[in-house]
Write a structure and sequence with these properties.
Layout: H1 8-26, H2 55-58, E1 65-71, H3 84-93, E2 95-101, H4 104-113, E3 119-122, H5 128-131, H6 140-147, H7 151-154, H8 157-162, E4 172-174, H9 180-185, E5 192-197, H10 198-203, H11 212-225, E6 230-234, H12 246-251, H13 270-284, H14 297-305, E7 309-315, H15 317-330, E8 336-339, E9 362-365, H16 372-383, H17 385-393, E10 400-402, E11 408-410, H18 412-420, H19 422-428, H20 452-460, H21 481-501, H22 506-522, H23 525-543
Parallel strand pairs: 1-2, 1-3, 6-7
Antiparallel strand pairs: 3-9, 4-9, 5-7, 5-8, 10-11
Helix pairs in contact: 1-4, 6-16, 11-13, 14-15, 15-20, 16-17, 18-19, 21-22
């Protein structure tokens, strides 16, 4: 998926939502007068409902509508109306959007104080915020019926069904919600890759790095021949485990479930732990930098821009495409390229993940929305072909043209700017960044959908994607004892993983791992596994997998 920042921030927000859950249950998510919906707006003099015509095309409201939109991410670009994409949205919908950003603490203040924005975007549809949306948000089904029935033509039925709450209504709609059909189409690009600088790879004789022994040897050779480089890098650890967690597990093809269809603890998979011990061996040899465990997303990105890492296990290649392009433009003969990298010691094929049916950013219209008609028009507009084309490619004739074979091609000057000045490209055009309700399938319409820096990486990933649908939204419900235990376990696993990789010897490695196993037993792990298995079964039923 395309975005403005490191995809690992997504994991951080998902982790943080669990911490917030209890507070939310004690404040605005609990109901009460403050959560009563604002009175419906009148459409008299504005437009007549027409299921065959998007409401935004018919709306005659003269004055511009200002909407406040909170995005639960402090890195989100709050500009609106300055770049080509949002300027066009502002013009077509006759709206102005005031974006507010923050973290979970800021989000909680809305529910505690009752001063709600018009729209809210969160990053975890399994959080207390999302699961209690009926207490603070308006159903999209009702908004479509009241204000814009054309919404039902552009929204994916499978996605709406997946997001239904217990009352049978859908409140949030995500971006990058991929169904099985989307995966089967082959149009979804891989977002993970093991990459290495071309000059390093060639200098070492194009080595294989598939086995633990090969990996350790190559890292040592890099350190010897390229002493100014960090041999191996990975996405920032932050609140989660970076690309050394489930991303590495996917590269190794660690099973998604047990043979009898129950939840499988991938963190304790023998194949995966073999590779963690391999990373520990490389660390003890001085081939992994201590800084890599402390660097935040910004520090990691700065090192990518200057090619500081010889090799990386990279999650979120589209999110890093600008940084990779900056290095590629300055150093065309040293650009990062994808190779097979670490492979299963048991012969498993990679099972790389992409966005699932849950997607990423889920957006809601709050009960305090001053003009819910305009709010649902935003959904319809951005979900439509017109909106998708705008967000991805801009405006026909100004930024792109259609070729004789129906492909989308960026104009030469736009393509040059994307390649040579990624920062200005983002600032002036914002194509591929402003992606509320965006979808991967529209990327397949053009060879210019992604910068040159990641195209080879995506080609390498062809045929390696496997949906992880059955593992989506399977955690214990927020507020339960199991959910609290899982929060503690996730925190413990994060420190355990880092401690294993940085262990001074095998005995310390084993001791840290055994301590984690004991921690699981002491923190309701068996109950969590049972809940996850039950939710996996429900997912299979919902998806028709059994």
């Amino acid at each position: 998926m395309q975005g403005n920042k490191n995809v690992l921030r997504k994991s951080a927000w998902k982790w943080g939502a669990g911490v917030l859950a209890t507070a939310l249950m004690l404040t605005g998510c609990g109901g009460g007068s403050d959560n009563e919906a604002a009175a419906p707006v009148s459409l008299e003099g504005r437009y007549e409902l027409d299921p065959e015509t998007p409401a935004w095309q018919s709306d005659k409201k003269a004055e511009s509508t200002t909407l406040t939109w909170y995005v639960n991410a402090d890195w989100w670009n709050t500009d609106f109306g300055k770049d080509l994409v949002t300027k066009k949205i502002k013009e077509d919908l006759n709206i102005d959007i005031k974006f507010i950003t923050g973290d979970d603490t800021k989000l909680n203040t809305f529910f505690a104080g009752g001063d709600m924005p018009d729209l809210i975007t969160v990053f975890d549809s399994n959080s207390a915020v999302a699961q209690k949306a009926a207490t603070w948000a308006l159903p999209l089904n009702d908004l479509a019926e009241q204000y814009d029935p054309y919404f039902n033509k552009v929204a994916a039925a499978d996605t709406l069904n997946w997001f239904q709450l217990k009352d049978g209504k859908t409140y949030g709609y995500p971006n990058y919600s991929n169904t099985q059909a989307d995966y089967d189409s082959g149009e979804i690009p891989a977002k993970t890759a093991f990459v290495i600088r071309k000059d390093v790879y060639e200098a070492l004789g194009s080595p294989e790095i598939g086995t633990p022994e090969q990996f350790v040897q190559v890292m040592g050779e890099i350190k010897q021949q390229f002493p100014d480089l960090i041999p191996f890098g990975f996405n920032s650890i932050g609140e989660g485990t970076g690309s050394l967690g489930d991303t590495l597990q996917d590269f190794l093809g660690v099973p998604l479930q047990t043979e009898d269809g129950q939840f499988y603890d991938r963190n304790l998979d023998e194949d995966y732990l073999t590779w963690i011990k391999t990373l520990n061996e490389a660390y003890r040899a001085g081939d992994l930098s201590d800084d890599s465990f402390a660097d935040d997303g910004t520090a990691f990105e700065e090192k990518v821009k200057v090619g500081k890492y010889a090799a990386m296990l990279l999650d979120g290649t589209p999110q890093q495409s600008g940084n990779l392009q900056i290095f590629m433009t300055a150093n065309p003969d040293k650009a990062y390229m994808a190779i097979d990298g670490p492979q299963s010691t048991k012969g498993n094929e990679p099972t790389l993940n992409q966005s699932g049916i849950t997607g990423w950013m889920a957006t809601y219209v709050t009960k305090k929305a001053q003009d819910p008609a305009k709010a649902i028009q935003i959904y319809t507009y951005l979900l439509s072909e017109e909106g998708q084309m705008l967000m991805n490619y801009g405006i026909e004739g100004e930024t792109y043209e259609k070729t004789a074979d129906g492909k989308i091609e960026l104009l030469p000057e736009i393509k040059k700017l994307q390649k040579d000045d990624a920062d200005r490209y983002k600032k002036d055009y914002r194509m591929g960044e402003f992606m509320f309700f965006g979808h991967d399938k529209h990327k397949a319409l053009s060879d210019d959908a992604f910068p040159e820096s990641v195209k080879q990486m995506q080609e390498w990933g062809e045929g390696k994607l496997v949906p992880h649908f059955l593992l989506e939204n399977i955690n214990p419900d927020q507020g339960t004892a199991e959910a609290r235990a899982l929060t503690a376990i996730n925190t413990k696993w994060n420190t355990t993983l880092v401690s294993m990789i940085r262990a001074k010897d095998d005995a310390t490695f084993d001791a840290v791992l055994n301590e984690y196993r004991s921690f699981l037993e002491q923190n309701r792990w068996a109950d969590i596994v049972k809940i996850r298995s039950e939710k996996m079964a429900a997912n299979k039923e919902k998806l028709g997998l059994e």
